[in-house]
Amino acid sequence: MAEIKWQKDKTVRLEAGGHRIFLEDRGPFAAPELCRWAIADNSGRTPELTEDGILWLDFKRYLHLALEDSIVLSIPLRAERGGETWAPAGVDAFVKLRELFPAWPVRLSKTTRAAMTALRTASIIEPVQPQAAWPEVGRE
Q: Which of 5, 62, 81, 108 gives 25 a disulfide partner, CB atoms 3.0 to 4.6 angstroms apart?
Protein backbone atom coordinates (compact mmCIF):
# COMPACT_ATOMS: atom_id res chain seq x y z
CA MET A 1 0.00 0.00 0.00
CA ALA A 2 1.26 3.46 -0.90
CA GLU A 3 2.16 5.84 1.89
CA ILE A 4 -0.65 8.32 2.61
CA LYS A 5 0.34 11.96 2.99
CA TRP A 6 -1.59 14.75 4.68
CA GLN A 7 -1.99 18.38 3.66
CA LYS A 8 -0.17 20.29 6.38
CA ASP A 9 -2.45 23.35 6.28
CA LYS A 10 -5.66 21.29 6.35
CA THR A 11 -5.51 19.76 9.83
CA VAL A 12 -8.52 20.78 11.94
CA ARG A 13 -8.97 20.21 15.68
CA LEU A 14 -12.61 19.36 16.32
CA GLU A 15 -12.53 19.83 20.11
CA ALA A 16 -10.04 21.06 22.68
CA GLY A 17 -7.90 18.05 23.56
CA GLY A 18 -9.97 15.84 21.25
CA HIS A 19 -10.10 14.53 17.72
CA ARG A 20 -8.36 16.14 14.76
CA ILE A 21 -9.17 15.63 11.11
CA PHE A 22 -6.61 15.53 8.31
CA LEU A 23 -7.09 16.08 4.58
CA GLU A 24 -5.34 13.57 2.36
CA ASP A 25 -2.67 14.98 0.03
CA ARG A 26 -2.83 13.33 -3.39
CA GLY A 27 -0.40 15.76 -4.97
CA PRO A 28 -0.58 19.18 -6.62
CA PHE A 29 -2.77 18.05 -9.53
CA ALA A 30 -5.45 16.19 -7.56
CA ALA A 31 -8.95 17.67 -7.50
CA PRO A 32 -9.75 18.71 -3.90
CA GLU A 33 -13.06 16.82 -3.92
CA LEU A 34 -11.14 13.57 -4.53
CA CYS A 35 -9.06 13.95 -1.37
CA ARG A 36 -10.44 12.12 1.67
CA TRP A 37 -10.60 13.27 5.30
CA ALA A 38 -9.32 11.02 8.11
CA ILE A 39 -9.67 11.38 11.87
CA ALA A 40 -7.09 10.92 14.63
CA ASP A 41 -7.45 10.75 18.38
CA ASN A 42 -4.66 11.44 20.85
CA SER A 43 -3.16 7.96 20.51
CA GLY A 44 -1.15 9.12 17.49
CA ARG A 45 0.19 12.27 15.86
CA THR A 46 -1.44 11.46 12.49
CA PRO A 47 -4.21 8.99 11.52
CA GLU A 48 -1.90 6.15 10.44
CA LEU A 49 -0.05 6.35 13.79
CA THR A 50 -3.17 5.93 15.97
CA GLU A 51 -4.13 2.69 17.73
CA ASP A 52 -7.09 2.29 15.34
CA GLY A 53 -5.16 3.01 12.17
CA ILE A 54 -6.63 5.21 9.46
CA LEU A 55 -10.33 5.96 9.89
CA TRP A 56 -11.91 7.92 7.03
CA LEU A 57 -14.89 10.24 7.51
CA ASP A 58 -17.88 8.47 5.93
CA PHE A 59 -20.00 11.11 4.22
CA LYS A 60 -22.39 8.43 2.91
CA ARG A 61 -23.80 8.00 6.42
CA TYR A 62 -25.43 10.54 8.72
CA LEU A 63 -23.80 12.37 11.59
CA HIS A 64 -25.83 11.22 14.60
CA LEU A 65 -26.73 13.71 17.33
CA ALA A 66 -28.15 12.54 20.67
CA LEU A 67 -29.13 14.34 23.83
CA GLU A 68 -28.07 12.13 26.74
CA ASP A 69 -26.44 13.45 29.94
CA SER A 70 -24.82 15.86 27.49
CA ILE A 71 -24.92 16.33 23.74
CA VAL A 72 -23.25 13.36 22.08
CA LEU A 73 -22.23 13.34 18.44
CA SER A 74 -21.38 10.11 16.64
CA ILE A 75 -19.14 10.62 13.62
CA PRO A 76 -19.48 7.85 11.01
CA LEU A 77 -16.16 6.37 9.92
CA ARG A 78 -14.87 3.76 7.51
CA ALA A 79 -11.72 1.88 8.52
CA GLU A 80 -8.82 1.61 6.09
CA ARG A 81 -8.71 -2.09 7.04
CA GLY A 82 -12.42 -2.43 6.19
CA GLY A 83 -15.61 -2.06 8.17
CA GLU A 84 -17.68 0.76 9.61
CA THR A 85 -17.38 2.37 13.02
CA TRP A 86 -18.22 5.59 14.87
CA ALA A 87 -16.23 8.16 16.85
CA PRO A 88 -17.92 9.86 19.81
CA ALA A 89 -17.56 13.63 20.10
CA GLY A 90 -19.23 16.61 21.70
CA VAL A 91 -21.02 19.77 20.67
CA ASP A 92 -17.82 21.63 19.64
CA ALA A 93 -17.02 18.90 17.12
CA PHE A 94 -20.60 19.03 15.82
CA VAL A 95 -20.40 22.79 15.25
CA LYS A 96 -16.99 22.52 13.56
CA LEU A 97 -18.10 19.67 11.26
CA ARG A 98 -21.27 21.56 10.26
CA GLU A 99 -19.14 24.62 9.41
CA LEU A 100 -16.73 22.55 7.31
CA PHE A 101 -19.30 20.22 5.70
CA PRO A 102 -22.73 21.93 5.71
CA ALA A 103 -24.26 19.36 3.36
CA TRP A 104 -23.41 16.39 5.62
CA PRO A 105 -26.83 15.18 6.80
CA VAL A 106 -27.62 14.91 10.50
CA ARG A 107 -29.86 12.34 12.14
CA LEU A 108 -31.35 13.23 15.52
CA SER A 109 -32.09 10.62 18.17
CA LYS A 110 -35.71 10.20 19.31
CA THR A 111 -34.88 11.82 22.65
CA THR A 112 -33.27 14.81 20.94
CA ARG A 113 -36.24 15.27 18.58
CA ALA A 114 -38.65 15.04 21.51
CA ALA A 115 -36.67 17.61 23.53
CA MET A 116 -36.54 20.03 20.57
CA THR A 117 -40.29 19.63 19.97
CA ALA A 118 -41.00 20.36 23.65
CA LEU A 119 -38.78 23.46 23.61
CA ARG A 120 -40.46 24.73 20.44
CA THR A 121 -43.94 24.05 21.89
CA ALA A 122 -43.02 26.00 25.02
CA SER A 123 -41.74 28.84 22.76
CA ILE A 124 -38.27 28.52 24.29
CA ILE A 125 -36.65 28.06 20.90
CA GLU A 126 -37.76 29.15 17.45
CA PRO A 127 -38.09 26.62 14.64
CA VAL A 128 -35.08 26.69 12.34
CA GLN A 129 -35.82 27.27 8.68
CA PRO A 130 -33.63 24.95 6.59
CA GLN A 131 -31.20 26.70 4.28
CA ALA A 132 -30.99 25.65 0.65
CA ALA A 133 -27.65 23.86 1.25
CA TRP A 134 -28.98 21.86 4.21
CA PRO A 135 -30.52 18.43 3.60
CA GLU A 136 -33.64 17.30 5.38
CA VAL A 137 -32.95 16.16 8.94
CA GLY A 138 -32.98 12.35 9.00
CA ARG A 139 -35.19 10.24 11.22
CA GLU A 140 -34.39 6.94 12.91
A: 5
Report the candidate in 42, 43, 38 with the shortest Cα–Cα distance to residue 22.
Answer: 38
The continuous run of DSSP H or E covering 112 comes out as helix 110-121
Q: Within its chain, how far is the Cα of 83 from the centroid?
A: 17
The answer to whether residues 38 and 22 touch, using CB atoms and an 8 Å cutoff, is yes
pLDDT tens, 22-73?
Answer: 999 988 888 877 889 999 999 999 999 999 999 999 999 999 999 877 888 9
Taking the C-alpha atoms of residue 49 and residue 35, their distance in angstroms, rounded to an integer, is 19
pTM of the model: 0.79
Give the H/E segment covering residue 56. strand 55-57
Which residue stretches of 45-105 are H helix? Answer: 91-100
pLDDT-derived band at 21 (thresholds 50, 70, 90) equals very high
